[in-house]
Amino acid sequence: MTEQALKALLDSMTIQEKVGQLIQCNAGQFIRNQLEITGPDGETLPTEEVCRIMGSVLTFEDAEQAIALQEMHLAADPKKIPLLLMLDVIHGLRTTYPIPLAMGCSFDDDLMAECADMARKESSACGVHVTFNPMVDTARDARWGRILETNSEEPLINSRMGAAFVRTAQGNDLSDPGNIACCVKHYAAYGAGEAGRDYNTVDLSERSLRQDYLPAYKACVDAGARLVMPSFNALNGIPSVANKWLMNRILREEWGFSGVVVSDYNAVGELVAHGIAADHKDAARLAMEAGCDIDMVDNSYYLYLADLVREGTVPAEMLDEAVMRVLRLKNELGLFENPFHGADRVAEKRLYLCPEHRETARRAAEETAVLLKNEGILPFREDVKHIALIGPFAEEKHLNGFWSRPGAERDTVTIPEGIRALLPDTELTVERGCGAAIGDTDTGGIARAAEAAAGADAVILVLGEPENYSGEGRSRAELNLPGPQMQLARAVLAANRNTAVVLFNGRPLVITELAETAPAILEMWYPGTEAGNALARLLWGRANPCGKLSAGMPRSTGQYPMPYNRMNTGRPKPPPDCKPAPFTSCYLDMPNLPLYSFGYGLSYTTFSYEKLEIDRNEITKDEKLHVAVTVRNTGTRAGKETVQLYLRDPVASVVRPVQQLIDYKKVALEPGEKKEIVFTVSEQQLRFFNAEGKEISEAGEFLVSAGYADHLLLTEKFRLA
């Protein structure tokens, strides 16, 4: 449809029909089933009227429902304007790959693109037009349960992986039935809520906001994301969905975003609870004035927007602009010609859990696992005769993580299934030992678990937090292993030292005692559909761990927030970090640094960083610096190493981070092989936001290093002229 035809369609619509395009309803209001929702449902809308005029729905099940919804709507709508069908496809649809925080541990943008391609294919066949993904909130506090939805505490990783997802899912032509539109979220700074509590207040300087939180959203907008979702939180006193500076000034004017803004679930109505709207009519006005096009589930637009326009409180032009953005998106998706887009019952069955997708999911789970400790325990020998599999997650199927599809656990490969598929002749004893619920004190199974461990040749101790303990609305004040899991660990480790601990969790946990006592620890996160197969291959060396932590793991919850790219102070703590230093910025009762720092991760082989060379000692603003890092595999196994490049600006007009990741590349090396990895550093990577909020670079000396956070191995100096 041409722009002129869209304008003619708009002109033919009544005010109420226009408002309808800005209404988003839950599919459960029209299809009788039990759909899980993430907020309170608004009052039930008049089904017949809303079905006729509504512009979009979310949370449907499959292609059959997608087709039924569209048919029901088109039959009722005299204008025949198709629905937009939206769904949270966060880490896969039916074939689930690891949670986003785990994907960040891969430091592999290409792997992210492969997983996005898999999700795109399954989602389009399901009937999805828009996915509420990528989520690129910078999160530095693991008490916040939604840290699992973002890729990293580092905005560079969020930017690159978010952009990779957008480019892959949307493709070159959005009207292609195989492509889906992306909604980047949650704009802005949702991950910085006070005390790690979800939906909580955020108060940031503009400089910090621009430096650390906005870059990833902008990267996704620059990659072509067609939608943006404002965050639930108030930012500097104004909830994002009503924040004119954030949405109109930054998003639309500065960044040139011309796409659709859709509120989060019930967020418009929550302006009343925030205390900046007197009632829902006032909330509708504030959200419209801030440029929010679609009101998700809350009824404020449906009930009051038409009256606001008729009385002149909301200009008619503002309504028309919002509706045109929605119509343009529908047109770009090709819905006027093909309202069902890619919905295909046959393709669904062919694509869901197909061998190709399972292989991608399994490889992703292997590449995102982080080997935290290994005293020669792993990999296990393949001729081991008797294995004891112990722990509350030993036979667990809920290993997909929050935002996995309802019923996803039915398709999950469990740990016993994975081990038996890899080693069918090995004797396997399984003991749960204890539970993992907060407040669980039942230790009745620990003695039997320790006995099983004592009689085994090798032990796999599977610990962590239940799947529903991290995600939206799942904040935790203490990040220790819940329940009596440490009691179980002590007993098992005392019974058999040939024990490898495996962790399943959606956030960094406090495992300080475990790190001191366990001989091997493998962090699996929530790995998805192929959990058991991936773990078995990792434990027995068919796959070599290569993940690096995308967020540091604390010694204590009290260390949060603990960004790796922290600022220096006037009284920095001198090394060593192991004990207090009076009258410096430190703790009396523990070191400053995390238990495991950002970028850390071991392998079954070893790597040496032999040299770092720069091709010049000084660059101008128009020149590039080439940094060559030589890495050698000094072990006996093939492996992959993520070479991380860090920058430090020692003297500037504002305090700068002690370390800042500016680039990374993953390299595969055979035993004894060495490679030179070359990075290009430009003046743009030296920029920062000054005290006036302007992005600048300043002449002077810079340090460029290779290694990982808090452990920079090789460093060279150069100057910006």
Q: What does this protein structure show overall?
A:
The protein has 721 residues and is an alpha/beta fold. The chain folds into 3 domains: 345 residues, Glycoside hydrolase, family 3, N-terminal domain (TIM Barrel, Alpha-Beta Barrel); 198 residues, 3-Layer(aba) Sandwich (Rossmann fold); 116 residues, Immunoglobulins (Immunoglobulin-like). It is 29% helix and 19% strand. The strands form 6 sheets. An 8-stranded parallel beta sheet has the order 9-6-5-4-3-2-1-10. It is globular and about 75 Å long. The termini are far apart. The relative contact order is 0.11. About 2% of the residues have low confidence.
Brief characterization of the structure:
It contains 20 helices and 26 strands. The chain has 721 residues and is an alpha/beta fold. The model is unreliable at 33-43 (pLDDT under 50).
Q: Residue ranges: pLDDT <50 for 5 or more in a row?
A: 33-43
CATH overall fold name of the largest domain: TIM Barrel
Query: What's the gyration radius in Å?
Result: 26 Å
Known CATH architecture of the largest domain:
Alpha-Beta Barrel
Tell me the name of the CATH homologous superfamily of the largest domain.
Glycoside hydrolase, family 3, N-terminal domain
Q: Specify the number of helices.
A: 20
Architecture blueprint of SSEs:
Blueprint: H1 3-11, H2 15-21, E1 23-26, H3 47-53, E2 56-58, H4 63-76, E3 84-87, H5 100-105, H6 109-126, E4 130-131, H7 155-170, E5 181-187, H8 206-222, E6 227-230, E7 234-235, E8 238-239, H9 244-254, E9 260-261, H10 270-274, H11 280-289, E10 295-296, H12 300-310, H13 316-332, H14 345-351, H15 355-368, E11 370-374, E12 386-390, H16 415-422, E13 427-431, H17 446-454, E14 458-464, H18 485-495, E15 499-504, H19 512-517, E16 520-523, H20 531-539, E17 607-614, E18 618-619, E19 625-633, E20 639-648, E21 660-669, E22 674-681, E23 688-689, E24 695-696, E25 700-708, E26 711-720
Parallel strand pairs: 1-2, 1-10, 2-3, 3-4, 4-5, 5-6, 6-9, 12-13, 12-14, 14-15, 15-16, 18-26
Antiparallel strand pairs: 7-8, 11-16, 17-19, 19-22, 20-21, 20-25, 23-24, 25-26
